[in-house]
């Protein structure tokens, strides 16, 4: 409820900021978005990549069973008109829409849903979306190679799918991201699909210039009447904050994610402060520790790292207040966030004591893998190193590209890494990343295993009473705080600059750059025709 209220309040803030929101949307024009998280897109096969960068274009090109509604702060049905729940809350019967056409002209059917989810569960591929599809009964058997079909998915007719879940959860939280996009079964397996993807979204694929941009154009048979408004979308890759800043000031792009330095600069610039849009996102920034590296196998060492770092100082000085201090894993906007929980104190003496008890009185050395990201990468690592050094822990930096880091994290090829990971919107799904049954490539990046934690999360998954479920999830989150598989850094405050002519921006707490682009439009003052 708290999450929903925050989303609605945030939505009101945006409505007040942009009095033009009441205008009649204009047809035509080009929307020029930026992909700000690296120097490339990972893949045009969105099933294969969990990077936020890739979902920016995928929100325009593809559609999932549900979609995120930022005004309501929850997922709502998108490719289905109705969900009839039975079987004690475990069986969902979806009546699919009959007006959803793929970009090659064929109507979507139940077969496409079943094919897409079965593909995602191919255990030889380790698709990141498997962490969501695994909630369907029989999906894990396909992943393990014990079955060819997901037993919990049944086609009733062309426009009706029955889905049996293993837990009493809202499937919307599992099937709204682009990782579970529905592909056309007749095209999705072809080699050509990766070069020229076909989706159900409001825009169809035109071109991909690697390292530069993706261009999409309006799909005239999109199922929402009168939408999309724009004729074209260009998503330009701009991993460098300075390049985005210049392009935005020169009116060459319509959106630009602001890092800490720009956040301060834009707030103090009379011409730019009106362009700022911000929201508390469901992302947790953290340093992950590999338990197969001996020192990190000891809980006391992991706790010592949390005590050794002056996290508040880093947030204030380096992140320029563009973040909220992390207590445990679940962020402020999570319905299971515990307001009473206090973060780890900055206490180097306590850190030294714990290291001594763990058998490391003189500390140890480790390799820390990082990207250049200014909000949670190299600058943060550089600030933390002298703090760890004070308690005897030496860190050697290993710098990699953002796309490489995503692979390092999924394969476990690290001693420690620093990252930003979705930790919502559903607390059950977020905490499931630490369940011992969740494979490392899916999202259990620290290969966390704790029987007590598993038991609490499993119990929450079978709870009928939402209050009881929230209580159990808070308990699981508290256990994570105690076990400290990560250094809990911060929860992101996402900030984006938006040109005054771009209308309809949604305050998406799951990732501000992920917009339901069919609702965006540009007025006649836009320089891009």
TrEMBL record:
Database matches in InterPro entries: Peptide/Ni-bd, SBP_5, SBP_5_dom
Signal peptide as annotated in the record: 1-22
This protein's name: Peptide/nickel transport system substrate-binding protein
Organism whose genome encodes this protein: Bradyrhizobium ottawaense
PANTHER family assigned to the protein according to its UniProt record, in alphabetical order: ABC TRANSPORTER SUBSTRATE-BINDING PROTEIN, PERIPLASMIC BINDING COMPONENT OF ABC TRANSPORTER
Transit peptide is among the record's keywords: no
Protein's cellular compartments: Periplasm
Family named by the database record: Belongs to the bacterial solute-binding protein 5 family.
Domain Solute-binding protein family: 74-438
Top-rank taxon: Bacteria
Record key words, sorted: Signal
């Amino acid at each position: 409820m708290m999450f929903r209220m925050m989303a609605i309040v945030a939505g009101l803030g945006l409505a007040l900021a942009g009095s033009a929101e009441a205008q009649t949307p204009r047809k035509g024009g080009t929307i020029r978005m930026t992909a700000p998280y690296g120097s490339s897109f990972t893949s045009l096969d969105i099933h294969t990549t969990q990077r936020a960068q890739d979902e920016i274009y995928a929100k325009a090109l593809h559609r999932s069973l549900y979609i995120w509604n930022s005004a309501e702060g929850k997922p709502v049905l998108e490719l289905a008109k109705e969900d009839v729940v039975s079987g004690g809350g475990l069986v969902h019967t979806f009546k699919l829409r009959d007006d959803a056409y793929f970009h090659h002209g064929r109507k979507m059917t139940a077969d496409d849903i079943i094919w897409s989810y079965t593909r995602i569960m191919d255990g030889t591929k380790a698709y990141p979306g498997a962490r969501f599809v695994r909630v369907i009964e029989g999906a894990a058997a396909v992943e393990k190679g014990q079955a060819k079909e997901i037993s919990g998915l049944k086609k009733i007719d062309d426009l009706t799918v029955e889905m049996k879940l293993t837990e009493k959860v809202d499937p919307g939280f599992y099937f709204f991201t682009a990782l579970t996009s529905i592909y056309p079964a007749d095209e999705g397996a072809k080699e050509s699909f990766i070069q020229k993807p076909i989706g159900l979204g409001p825009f169809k694929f035109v071109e991909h210039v690697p390292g530069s941009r993706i261009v999409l154009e309006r799909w005239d048979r999109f199922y929402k009447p009168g939408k999309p408004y724009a004729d074209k979308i260009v998503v330009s890759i701009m991993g460098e904050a300075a390049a985005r800043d210049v392009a935005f000031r020169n009116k060459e792009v319509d959106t630009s994610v602001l890092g800490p330095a720009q956040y301060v600069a834009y707030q103090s610039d009379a011409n730019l402060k009106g362009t700022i849009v911000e929201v508390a996102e469901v992302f947790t920034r953290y340093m992950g520790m590999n338990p197969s590296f001996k020192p990190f196998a000891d809980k006391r060492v992991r706790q010592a790292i949390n005590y050794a770092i002056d996290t508040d100082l880093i947030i204030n000085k380096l992140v320029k207040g563009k973040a909220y201090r992390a207590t445990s894993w679940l962020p402020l906007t999570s319905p299971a966030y515990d307001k009473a929980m206090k973060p780890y104190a900055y206490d180097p003496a306590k850190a030294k004591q714990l290291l001594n008890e763990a058998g490391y009185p003189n500390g140890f050395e480790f390799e820390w893998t990082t990207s250049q990201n200014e909000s949670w990468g190299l600058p943060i690592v550089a600030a933390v190193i002298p703090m760890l050094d004070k308690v005897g822990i030496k860190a050697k930096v290993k710098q990699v590209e953002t796309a490489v880091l995503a692979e390092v994290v999924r394969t476990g090829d690290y001693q420690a890494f620093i990252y930003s990971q979705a930790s919502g919107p559903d607390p059950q799904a977020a905490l499931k990343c630490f369940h011992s049954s969740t494979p490392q490539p899916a999202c259990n990046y620290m290969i966390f295993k704790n029987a007590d934690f598993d038991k609490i999360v499993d119990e929450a998954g079978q709870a009928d009473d939402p209050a009881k479920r929230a209580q159990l999830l808070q308990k699981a989150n508290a256990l994570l705080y105690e076990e400290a598989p990560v250094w809990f850094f911060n929860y992101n405050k996402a900030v984006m600059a938006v040109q005054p002519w771009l209308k309809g921006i949604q305050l998406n707490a799951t990732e501000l750059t992920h917009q339901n682009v069919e609702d965006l439009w540009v007025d006649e003052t836009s320089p891009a025709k």
